[in-house]
Amino acid sequence: MQSGHRDEHATETAVLLAVLLVPAAKCGFYRGGGGRMVGSKASGAEVTPRENRHMSEPPDDTQRMVRARAPGIWSMLRRSVIKLGLEGAEQIKDPDVGECFEWDPGYPASWMCEQVGWISPELRSQLDELDALLDRLSADRRAWTDDAIMTLPLWEETRQVARRCLPLMTEEPWTEEVWYYE
Predict the structure, then answer these.
(1) Across-strand partners of 70?
(2) How far apart are CA 105 and CA 36, in angstroms?
(3) pTM summary value
(4) Disulfide check for 106: which of 25, 63, 76, 162 has CB 3.0–4.6 Å away?
(5) Collapsing DSSP states into helix, strand and coil, what is residue 38?
(6) What is the pLDDT of residues 107-142, one digit of tens each?
């Protein structure tokens, strides 16, 4: 991977994190155990955690934030899923494979995309499964060599789940009639 591109990408991701997560913290959300966004009643608003990971209803004062930020989160999450679904040999050669790491800020904030109706129950299940696989990969230092990326069965399982997610993720759901509500 080209180091200049990586530095630029890291800077973009850091800025996006600051824009996405800092206002969420001010609205009463915080990073909970396992690196997931969970609710807090500290803001005074009634907040109901969803499976201890996602918000089912953000407080009213976050509705504008959610609608404004959901397209960026969706795009980041979708790019990550695309890169995670590549064959191992392609992942190693791809100069933009760093987009896989957009998962880290994108997944915890995916509740916003769910809130506006772009994540179906089926997609939520697949994203949760993908996150669990990535947690397992992250826990194993040996999983991050070129050889492991191409041969480790856990990587292949991760790629398969990412490939199942992608057909459920339209490119720009905000321009289509793709709205899922429970």
Answers:
(1) none
(2) 10
(3) 0.65
(4) 76
(5) strand
(6) 999 999 998 999 999 999 999 999 999 999 999 999
